[in-house]
Design goal:
Largest sheet: 8 strands, mixed
Bound molecules: zinc ion
Low-confidence stretches: none
Helix content: under 10%
Strand content: 35-45%
Mean pLDDT: 93
Number of domains: 1
Shape: globular
Length: 104
């Protein structure tokens, strides 16, 4: 880890996953443009620790998808909230609330 981010880390929204993947901004998010037939979407986040790794989360806009693991998303791209907590194993564990990542 060459770049350790000081908390809190804000969630920068990218409208394009490829741009997000190239930029590697800690805590950035992008969201798949169209929900599937169950209303599920993928939210890609860049690990808030600063390592530059991206991971997808299965999310529902206003609900938690039936499949696990999954997260309820508040539908906001500017001030996203996810529940429950996000555990990027070995890197970071915490919450994304109102567009801010806070470790726990
Ligand atoms: Zn990390």
């Amino acid at each position: 880890m060459s770049e350790v981010k000081t908390e809190p880390v804000t969630a920068t929204y990218f409208d394009d996953w490829h741009k997000q993947r190239t930029a590697k901004v800690a805590g950035s998010i992008s969201v798949s443009p169209f929900p599937d037939e169950d209303g599920n979407q993928y939210l890609s986040y860049c690990c808030p620790c600063g390592c530059g790794r991206l991971a997808p989360l299965l999310v529902g806009n206003g609900f938690k998808p039936a499949e696990s693991p999954s997260w309820q998303w508040n539908g906001s791209r500017e001030k996203p909230t996810l529940t429950p907590s996000i555990n990027h194993i070995g890197h970071w564990h915490g919450y994304l609330t109102d567009g801010v990542w806070r470790s726990c």
